[in-house]
Design goal:
InterPro entries: Glyco_trans_1, Glyco_trans_4-like_N. The protein contains 12 helices and 13 strands. By secondary structure, the protein is an alpha/beta fold.
């Protein structure tokens, strides 16, 4: 199949550090290429892929030194996708909302994966207006707040099975990985570790919007507890070591998490997860097998003492069966095939693109 993957431009694909959506786009794109599909990735110019790269800006906008209005850049990208739409059997979008008006004439072949929270009423009127666009959820729970729309399926995220190696032994510390924000509840993670008397390492980014929360709540807690270490934002290479050496990942969220990629990253290493059962968590974890569900800090601290009962090899096998990138790609291809069957594909001569790769060739594979 000829497939266009349209990524957000905030980060490169894959991202250098934090960036869950761009990471999933990368894993899916590379797996589709390995399966023999013709894939074009619309993304920032610093992206790395075995697919044909259509660079839409020089670099991921979050790290760009230039004035980078994300709405302007994404609209320019979507216009380029519209101009080239008939080159592809399927247009798979990962950019939330902006594409609906631009790509209305191609809607039967447009598949949009919704990566974020959907409990924000401001967006519901728009989704209801464009209810003929096929949508994919990344968990069944993610769908609950939405008005009636055209759901094409639910596809749980997946990772390459060789991305994060299995670690049969741990080094005695607890891990928190992600972003410092009120809904991620790093304060709960600190309280759980302190109550359990266990060391906690926090590897997380601090966005500008969350800096007051960091300065007023989390930083004082870190400084007041010598068993808590703040590492900061880490990259993919550091992640394998950080998660693999942990006794458990703490995931004490307080919001309707659409998926929670870090849970399956920990599972890939064989590391169990102690999590509050919000949002997608019960669809991802298996209580008593890959981790434990807890509903309070006190219960979480008590469960830390039980993590030795969980078999890290079993956790890894469950990851391989349920959360591989290969399985994720198969699920998406099944949806693509249904879309192609419902929408005959037209061919036309490709138009000259708005952007061109610097060397005129595809980037090196990951």
């Amino acid at each position: 199949m000829r497939i266009a993957q349209i990524a957000p431009l905030i980060e490169s694909v894959p991202p250098r550090r934090y960036g869950g959506t761009e990471r999933i786009v990368s894993y899916l794109t590379e797996e589709l290429v390995r399966a023999g599909h013709e894939v074009t990735l619309f993304a920032s110019g610093d992206s790395l892929t075995a697919a044909e790269l259509a660079p839409m800006c020089e670099m991921g906008l979050r790290l760009s030194p230039a004035d980078a209005d994300p709405v302007v850049h994404h609209l320019i990208m979507l216009e380029e996708v519209r101009r080239r739409a008939d080159e592809f059997d399927v247009l798979h979008l990962h950019v939330d909302l902006l594409q609906f008006s631009v790509l209305r004439e191609h809607r039967q072949r447009c598949l949009t994966t919704l990566h974020g929270r959907l409990d924000l009423p401001v967006a519901h009127r728009l989704y209801a207006t464009y209810d003929d666009f096929p949508l994919v959820s990344i968990s069944d729970h993610q769908r609950l707040p939405m008005p009636p729309v055209n759901w094409a399926g639910t596809v749980l995220h997946g990772l390459p099975t060789d991305l994060l190696p299995f670690s049969p032994k741990s080094d005695g510390y607890l891990a928190f990985l992600g972003r410092i924000s009120p809904e991620k509840r790093p304060d709960r993670a600190i309280e759980m570790a302190v109550r359990a008397g266990r060391p906690l390492k926090i590897a997380a980014k601090v966005d500008a919007a969350d800096k007051p929360y960091w300065e007023s709540v989390i930083r004082p807690m870190v400084e007041a507890n010598p068993n808590v270490e703040f590492i900061g934002e880490i990259d993919e290479r550091q992640k394998a070591d950080f998660l693999g050496r942990a006794d458990a990942l703490l995931f004490p969220i307080d919001w309707p998490e659409p998926f929670g990629l870090v849970m399956i990253e920990a599972m890939a290493c064989g590391t169990p997860v102690i999590a509050f059962p919000c949002g997608s968590v019960p669809e991802v974890l298996q209580d008593g097998l890959t981790g434990y569900f807890v509903t309070s800090v006190e219960e979480g601290a008590a469960r830390i003492g039980d993590i030795g009962r969980l078999d890290r090899a079993v956790i890894r096998r469950i990851f391989e069966r349920r959360f591989s990138a290969e399985r994720m790609a198969r699920d998406y291809v099944a949806i693509y095939q249904r879309l192609v069957g419902a929408a005959p594909v037209r061919m036309r001569r490709p138009e000259r693109g708005l952007f061109k790769a610097a060397n005129g060739s595809r980037n090196a594979p990951l």
